[in-house]
Amino acid sequence: MSAAYTAGLFDVAGKRALVTGATSGIGRMIARGLAQAGVEVWVVARGAGDVEAIVAELGGNAQGVTADVATEEGIAKIAEALGERSLHILVNNAGTDRPTPLDADGREDFDAVLGLNLTAPFLLTRKLLPSLESGATFGDPARVINIASIAAINPGHLENFAYASGKAGVAMMSRHLGRHLAKRNISCNAIAPGLFPSRMTEKFLGMSEGDAVPKGFVTPLGARAGEMDDIAGAVIYLSSRAGAWVTGVLLPVSGGIYTVT
Fewer CB atoms inside 10 A, N or C side of the chain? Predict the structure, then answer.
């Protein structure tokens, strides 16, 4: 009896999810986790070859859309591909980071980071509202899950002012959307991941998937990076009956680093 209850509480099978930035890093982990949980996953990324590869890997009812969510054309392409289908879960994960040091000139890098990390999730959510409303009920809201970062809470040693500020904006935007989308039976929450292997950690920390964590890195829960089950579990919780009455929260998934720095 208890096992069946738990299984039902976290069951997301049969739902339809769209995950942006789904071909690498955290986005790929989320897409794989949702697919293994029985979700029809729509993966979105800029590289056609990468999209085809993960669709083939996920199998089942997985679908792919090659689009740049930082552009109006890309957002329109996603909405057109989804058509009149209902959408139960939207994971706004696509993101980027560029150094934005104090002693530099120009605003191109700052604008590019904010455009993809903060503006694009809002515009895509707004564009897909009809699909989300179609997939929502009072007892089982549609879910918008925005991927923020632990950098939204704790500034690190890198001069990534645009990234940290944008992710903090994602956290507040999620809280704000959580309030205003509730009347449409849509919840909105954010996840703040800590250290996970990705293209960004490889670029800035020299750590790619399968590598050991950087020397000296430790969290209250141990010296390891996040794994697929960690981030997919958080998304599944927020997308399931277990998370149906949760909205407007920022959930750190960081091994407890949020508590000590």
Answer: N
In a domain, 94, yes or no: yes
Q: Which domain holds residue 133?
A: 13-259
Of the residues 5, 163, 237, 258, only one is catalytic, namely 163
Ramachandran bin of 24, using left for φ above 0, alpha for ψ from -120 to 50, beta for the remaining angles: beta
Which tokens in the block code for residue 8? Answer: 């039902």
Q: 227 lies in a domain?
A: yes
Residues 136-173 pLDDT 10s: 999 999 999 999 999 999 887 788 899 999 999 999 99
> How many Cα atoms occupy the beta-carbon half-sphere of 42 within 13 Å?
22
Name the domain count of the chain.
1
Rg (CA), the chain: 18
Q: The domain that contains 140 carries what CATH number? A: 3.40.50.720
Is 4 inside any structural domain?
Answer: no
Tell me, yes or no, whether 1 lies in a domain: no
Summarised one tens digit per residue, pLDDT across range 116-128 is: 999 999 999 999 9
Record the tokens describing residue 197, joined without a space: 């292997």
Q: Is 5 a catalytic residue?
A: no
State the Cα–Cα distance between residues 88 and 82, nearest whole angstrom. Answer: 12
**Cβ distance 33 to 41 under 8 Å?**
no
